[in-house]
Amino acid sequence: MTELRTLQGRILTPAGWRRGRIGFDRHVRSIEDGDGSDDRIVLPGFIDLHVHGAAGVDLMQGFDVARTIARAHVRYGTTALLGTTMTAAEDDIVRALQGLAAAMAAPDPDAAQILGVHLEGPFISPHRLGAQPPLTVEATLESVQRLHALAPIRVLTLAPEIGRHTELIPALCALGIRVQIGHSAGTYEEGLAALRAGASGFTHLFNGMTGVDHYRPGIAAAALAHAEYAELIPDLQHVHPGAIRLALRAIPRLYAVTDATAATGMPDGEYALGSQRVHKCLGCVRLASGSLAGSALTMDQALRNLVEVGLDLADASHRVSAFPAQYLGLDDRGRLEPGARADLVVLDAQLRVVEVYVGGRGVDLG
Questions:
Q1: Which of 105, 132, 141, 260 has a Cα-to-Cα distance from 207 of 20 to 30 A?
Q2: From what superkingdom does this record's organism come (predicted)?
Q3: What is the pLDDT of residue 134?
């Protein structure tokens, strides 16, 4: 049993900021007003729904790399994540999901909790690959069910204009999968049709999709006009701050993801991204062609970048914890109130991570 612990500071609750003390074991037990310093900020743990790798390893390598990835990201305040695949041959995706399932079956107490899979490939457009290799295929219900049986697919990215993808969406939703539109060369109308069929999000908004041309609006325009949720990479490289502000005004529950690769937490150099090699230089991750290829972003830096763009801290916090939790339908986390899971991050006045608790258990950040 996790012992009852307390933390003092400025605590973000669903009702707003409270200065005082939070008591918790595996769950939050109490929040009481009292003394609390502005130098200790207590937030809900970060939830990252798009993670390919970290610490020099990539999820597609399979075996036990998922644990390494989850251990690396918890150091930056991420208390839960989705392991994210690349477009690849089915055998390679199967190996990645088997490794992920093994990590989920034996949770590491010193790591972020792995919630399941974000299947980003292979059901995407060959015309909007981004950093994905050219191994795309059309989705079938049977192929998704085979993969879903290996590890729970919580989020699936597809290009709605491909084959029968849009008519497949209701069946995918019936499996409990959140369908996201991404890596798509589709039109505004095709994006809207996918939303009406049950798609509920957009994968790394603006990147890997048709844009906002006022004569021929594309997938990004459909998101800005109609989406309740969308993910965005706020590393200030993938999306200009002005476009981030545009999306914040248009999409009520826009939330941050890292799209983190094996280069995350590592020095400049060459790393794997699925079957490809990427290069990290000055914090930016690119293919040899120069195209952006995921990121080296961490969720604490995403929070700081959102504040830099102009959000207040409470709003920025919602976009790295509450909104991704709501998107997945998780009512036990993403907020600090009695009864919620005790996933907490303590920041200093400069918004740097100083303590992390996963299910009430303190993580060694040394």
A1: 141
A2: Bacteria
A3: 93
